[in-house]
## 1
Amino acid sequence: QLQLVESGGGLVQPGGSLRLSCVASGFTLPYYAIAWFRQAPGKEREGVSCIKRGDDSTDYANSVKGRFTISRDNAKNTVYLQMNSLIPEDTAVYSCALRRISNHRRFEWDNSESYDTWGQGTQVTVSS
């Protein structure tokens, strides 16, 4: 059974940094892409960043470009989201999502319907 488990969230002051991890377990087939989404109270879920396994290409939401970096460690089946220069508007539950390579539906990296499996999420709070 494929599972995604996020960790690394917490409370941080504005200007601080956090690194989120998303560990995939329970499968051996390659995936097509893993993305990070976030959802703040009262707001719609938002695509934050995505990394594709085939060519390591990445995408970022405009709101996080230059501050967040997505990366992966294939040996550990882990995708990271390094978040720097955090601002209160980054406060949200962050979830990772995986798209299987067998999924042939239309792919839009920041559309949650493009992904097959989701983690439970980790809370990030940016506050002084």
## 2
Amino acid sequence: QVQLVESGGGLVQAGGSLRLSCAASGRTFSNYAMGWFRQAPGKERECVAAIQWSTSSTYYAESVKGRFTISRDNAKNTVYLQMNSLKPEDTAVYYCAADLLVGSTWSVTLIRNRYAYTYWGQGTQVTVSS
């Protein structure tokens, strides 16, 4: 079965960096979209970045543009989220997600929609102190 396993979260000071990893297994993800979502306490889960595995096309939320970079490693079947210039408002649980339809259509409406994704990881906590 499909498994998405996140790692790399932790506590960092404002202005610092973290790199999250999402190891994917259970099928070929070549036509999938891989998304990074985050959810802060009391807030909706939001998409911060996504990548279309086949083309490496990317999407970023406005709030993270210029600071976060999503990438993928075919050989390791892993997606990364490099987070730089972190702010306290980036504090959240970060989730990796995957979906075939999102990857096939690469529609922004679907990319940003948490309900469009079929597979989810367990999440990793990122805390940015001020």
